Amino acid sequence: MTGITRRGALGLMGGAAALPMLGRPALANTKVVVGALNFTSHAASFVAYERGYFAEAGLDVEFKFFQAAQPMAVAIASGDADYAVTAISGGLISLAEKGAAKVIGGALSEEKGIDGQKILVSDAAYQAGVTTPKALDGKKFGMTQAGSSFHYMGAKIAAAEGINLEYVPLQKVGAVIGALKSGQIDAWSIVPHIAKPLAGSGAVHIIGDLADYIPDYQVTTVFTSAGNAANERDKTAAFLAAFSKGAADFNAALVDKTTSADEAEAMIQLVHKYVYSDKPYDKAKPGIVNGAMRINAEAALNMGSVQDQLSWFKAEGLVKDTVSMEMLVDPSYVKTM
């Protein structure tokens, strides 16, 4: 994708499969900027980098870190990042509709039997009797932006419970955390590596599991510019192959727990370089372990979940009704389900 600046990408938003072998010589030292959040859910990228899988694929990776999903979509469209992993947002869908971005694979997923995202409430709300999702009627639910995954999650909870929520956009995850702890908002839903330490502090309380409301939710996806998807197939396939090797290592060590204790410890130490790196290791370790959710094998993509998300964004008027799955997803790189 060429010719779209960051300002242009923001304007567009407002208008709103087998993988090859690694190490192709033609890709030697190809510079790639990868968008990420400092979340355990992004561990596949971190593992692929730290264990040399990107380098083996001929990719010289640099990470660019963000505080929310929508700015990451802007960076992909403007060329400030080449690949990214985060939740589907209204901004990403609008950019895809304009031919600026494509979802090319799946990453984090809710899976039955594996601890997933939690529904949280502030201590003030909990003490006032908000101890179940049903009791959230009329309460303030935090999100980064309108049209974010948090907006989608809150809406699915509200629809299932037959309640109404007041959505409060706070732009950054850190701001949502602060507002929840101080009682400025009543509720939120987030991945367990953040939810459980917050609940352990006593400042917030867990009152439910998101999987009860959105089973098999494709929480995050891998996406790139439409230009990369269409015209840089070797590079894109190599990125996905390396990413998938990182995901396999992460799943084995911390999700399926099929490795040795030493190997699991090494994985936690690796992730700690990027997640809770401001905390001592012994303080960070429980959150990393508790936050280990499945990252899809070989970046397989749950098309049913993506379709549900797209349908919700369209029904809410957050994206154009004419947006199709073909505009949003390039299914040619990975297995779909």
TrEMBL record:
<keyword id="KW-0732">Signal</keyword>
<dbReference type="GO" id="GO:0042918">
    <property type="term" value="P:alkanesulfonate transmembrane transport"/>
</dbReference>
<protein>
    <submittedName>
        <fullName>ABC transporter substrate-binding protein</fullName>
    </submittedName>
</protein>
<comment type="similarity">
    <text>Belongs to the bacterial solute-binding protein SsuA/TauA family.</text>
</comment>
<dbReference type="InterPro" id="IPR006311">
    <property type="entry name" value="TAT_signal"/>
</dbReference>
<dbReference type="Pfam" id="PF09084">
    <property type="entry name" value="NMT1"/>
</dbReference>
<dbReference type="InterPro" id="IPR015168">
    <property type="entry name" value="SsuA/THI5"/>
</dbReference>
<feature type="domain" description="SsuA/THI5-like">
    <location>
        <begin position="40"/>
        <end position="249"/>
    </location>
</feature>
<dbReference type="GO" id="GO:0042597">
    <property type="term" value="C:periplasmic space"/>
</dbReference>
